[in-house]
Amino acid sequence: MKTSPRYLTNVVSLDLDISKCTGCGICAMVCPHRVFLMKNKKSVIIERDRCMECGACEMNCKDQAITVNKGVGCAAAIINGYFKNTEPSCGCSTSCN
Amino acid sequence: MQKESINEIKAISSSWQFNDHIGAIKVRAALGRNNYQVASGLYKIGDPDSKSDVYVSANYKLSFDILRRNLKSINAWILVLDTKGINVWCAAGKGTFGTNELIKQIENSKLHAIVKHRRLIVPQLGAPGISAYKVKDQTGFKVKYGPVRASDIQPFLASGYKASETMRTVHFSIKDRLILTPVEISNSLLALLGVLILFFVLSGITPEGYSIKIAFMEGMKSSVYILAAYLSGAFITPVLLPWLPSRYFAAKGIITSGIVFSIMILTGVISNSFIQTIGWFFISISIASFLAMNFTGASTFTSLSGVKKEMRLFVPVQITLSVIGFLIIIISNFFLI
After folding, report:
1. B149: closest CA of chain A, how far (Å)
2. For residue A7, is it within any domain?
3. How far apart are CA B178 and CA B160, in angstroms?
4. A38: containing domain
5. Which residues on B lie below 8 Å from A2 (Cβ)?
6. What CATH number does the domain containing A54 carry?
7. Hey, what domains does chain B have and what are their CATH numbers?
8. How far apart are CA A94 and CA B95, in angstroms?
């Protein structure tokens, strides 16, 4: 299957508390980069470095088993936020398509 | 619901008119893309009834247009959220394509009365903003995440509302990257122009005072360097992205512009004193590195934590190199070396 290239290793803030997971599988469904896999009715992180911290899994996990520092991986947004003293935010007149 | 009020719902076609094509080209070139919107609310496509599916979309006109074009020969409802003219994925990241807005639009459009079923098809890339279980709790509507790309809707329906792994995964093909570079280039065009003018003006400073003739000659030369660095960082690096070494975008930019710069020197496209060449080398790689780093925002796989790490490492390098390069050029210009 075609995928995106991988970004940096060992840097993302994604965490999964397996004890809270009830195995609904929504995280594996909504993840745009196939980070999760369902094994024995539990979610497992199989591709941590592919995570882009979009937050879809955390947002849809009714068990609150997933935490991630959600944000945009966008240098222009970080610069924007730095000068405006806010969270990184793209004006979206910028790069996001 | 009474027939008359259903008739008031805006009907739209699945085919694109001339203006839709022109609009799509314009926003891809970053012309007037801040105001390319449709009104939020409920639309109908074809001849939907109370059993027809409801597709949720953003009010960025290109998102809406791509959805309706892919609903050809389908009778359906489209529920457009007010995302301030931003596409589904970006808006979901910001939260404007979000749980509360979806619930509000369900209520405003009286969707409970219009359809008998209780399911909504939400594009998968809307998931960072939508909490499916909260929508279910508060409205009774079950969110079904559809494919990432609207072009997969027909196969998604044919397989009984099942999106395959490929349909649920974001790719980043060379075609995607080519579509995105004009926006990047267009957005930094003003800065480019500013830098070019700055170098034209500075080039005229000589020990004997200001020379317009030298300003023009040297200015032309600096334009060649700067344009080459600009294209290396904002065009060549994005297009060749997966094949360039290093995971860091900023490093990829340095590599690309280093190669382009070397080719220009070796083939004699541009010649200069040794010291000036060194100065321009530093400036070129820092410009390209910065522009390549900015492409993280257009890419589909970079994380905030990752880009922060990349910036901590490379912004100091970019600033140092460009300042040193700039000083080398100014000083050597002044002493005519």
Report:
1. 11
2. no
3. 34
4. 15-70
5. 166, 169, 171, 173
6. 3.30.70.20
7. 3-168 (3.40.50.11600), 174-334 (no CATH)
8. 18
Nearest CA in chain A to B234: A95
User: Are the beta carbons of A88 and A78 closer than 8 angstroms?
Assistant: yes
Residue B53 buriedness (CB in 10 A; 0-12 / 13-18 / 19+): buried
Low-confidence ranges of chain A (pLDDT < 70): 1-2, 90-97
Q: Is residue A61 part of a domain?
A: yes
pLDDT for B203 equals 84
For B:177-206, CB contacts with A below 8 A are 179-180, 183-184, 187
What residues of chain B score a pLDDT lower than 70?
Answer: 1-7, 31-34, 336-337
Write out residues 275-314 of B within 8 Å (CB-CB) of A: 293-311
**CB-CB neighbours of A57 under 10 Å:** 27
The angle formed by the CA atoms of residues B214, B220 and B225, to the nearest 5 degrees, is: 125
CB-based contact (8 Å) between B235 and chain A? no
* H or E stretch covering B95: none
Tell me if A59 is assigned to some domain.
yes
Asked if residue A65 belongs to a domain, the reply is: yes
Residue where the block lists tokens 């949720």: B56
Total of domains in chain A: 1
ipTM: 0.91
Tell me the per-residue pLDDT of B111-128, one tens digit each, with 9 for 90 and over.
Answer: 999 999 999 999 999 999
Q: In terms of CA atoms, which chain A residue is nearest residue B248? A: A8
Taking the CA of residue A74 and the nearest CA in chain B, the distance in Å comes to 4
Residue B102 in contact with partner chain A when CB distance is under 8 A: no
Exposure string over B271-307, b if 16+ CB within 10 A, otherwise e: ebeeebbbbbbbbbbbbbbbbbbbbbbbbbbbbbbbb
Is B124 an interface residue toward A (CB < 8 Å)?
Answer: yes
Distance CA B124, CA A33 (A): 12
Percentage of the residues of chain A whose pLDDT score is greater than 70: 90
